[in-house]
Design goal:
304 residues; alpha/beta; Metallo-beta-lactamase, Chain A
Length: 304
């Protein structure tokens, strides 16, 4: 299964030309998870050729406008386009009240089921299983209740080696057991190790999304060892006082978090509109963690 991350918006509260508020799509084959939905997200989807019909799950981290104001419009467009397939929406409890009021005053009755699941910011929580992934929420440290999201692919079983199965005359009824890890004992008592019969599977992938947050040790513990980390880096470290006041992270701190958590790849985003050139932010994060890329709208990352 191909796994891709598409950046629709890499900015923070105030959009600028070429940089929209936060939104991204995690593409799992032909199904997609939308993570946050800032203003203008559906325009970005049209711009970068993404079909709303492929979105099955939507995750909203918190209720600051640059992370959800595009959602009512996106859902309304899905309704107008005649969508029938359900959408599974996860977000803060008050999000349901906002959407209910929006649809009430506009006298809109969605043509598709919208299943809403409230998140909580007190502890790590398993949200759902989707396309072979377990999806979790975890607490972040922001001015209002905010969660990050963790995607962990389920362990993948190896592939049976056909020629070896034939060579050792292994009965078909044992294939499932061997694929699950069992060895095989021949009729004359010889043990055939599992690794001779099964080709190792592609390693599972993990991805963590940290939206608006001040740096915390609890976050480091949750995202420890992930393959890919997206972490906000709103300011350069010279504005650490402003970052602390607004419960945000500097690029330097984002790099330190990635280093402390032992992740393999870091993507930084949620940049203040004061920065037109992102190279200084990327360079600052790289002081602590060199496998870092500054996200820009339209970027695609192949996670596997």
């Amino acid at each position: 299964m191909s796994i891709e991350l598409h950046i629709l918006g890499s900015g923070s509260a105030t959009p600028i030309p070429g940089r929209n508020p936060t939104a991204q799509l995690l593409k799992l084959d032909q199904s997609e998870v939308l993570i946050d939905c800032g203003e203008g997200t559906q325009i970005q989807m049209l711009r970068f050729r993404h079909k709303a019909s492929r979105i099955k799950v939507i995750l909203i981290s918190h209720l600051h406008g640059d992370h959800y104001l595009g959602l009512p419009g996106l859902l309304s467009s899905m309704h107008l386009m005649g969508r029938k397939e359900p959408v599974h929406l996860f977000g803060p409890p008050q999000l349901k009240e906002i959407l209910d009021f929006q649809f009430k005053v506009s006298e809109t009755v969605l043509k598709f089921p919208l299943h809403f699941y409230p998140t909580q910011d007190a502890e790590v929580a398993h949200l759902t299983e989707f396309c072979g992934f377990d999806i979790y929420s975890f607490p972040l440290n922001h001015r209002i209740p905010t969660t990050g999201f963790l995607f962990k692919e389920k362990p993948r079983r190896g592939h049976l080696i056909t020629e070896m199965l034939r060579q050792y005359k292994i009965p078909v009824e044992m294939y499932k057991e061997i694929k699950a890890g069992a060895d095989f004992i021949t009729t004359d008592g010889n043990l055939i190790p599992n690794h001779i019969l099964v080709k190792a599977s592609t390693p599972s992938i993990s991805y963590a999304y940290c939206s608006d947050t001040a740096p915390t040790l609890s976050t480091v513990n949750v995202i420890n060892g992930v393959d890919w980390l997206y972490h906000e880096a709103t300011f350069l470290h010279e504005l650490i006082d402003r970052a602390t006041e607004t419960y945000h992270t500097t690029a330097k701190q984002a790099g330190e978090i990635a280093q402390s958590a032992g992740v393999k790849n870091l993507i930084i985003g949620h940049f203040s509109s004061r920065y037109r050139d992102l190279k200084p932010l990327q360079n600052e994060a790289a002081l602590a963690f060199d496998q870092v890329i500054a996200a820009e709208d339209g970027m695609k990352f192949t996670l596997r």
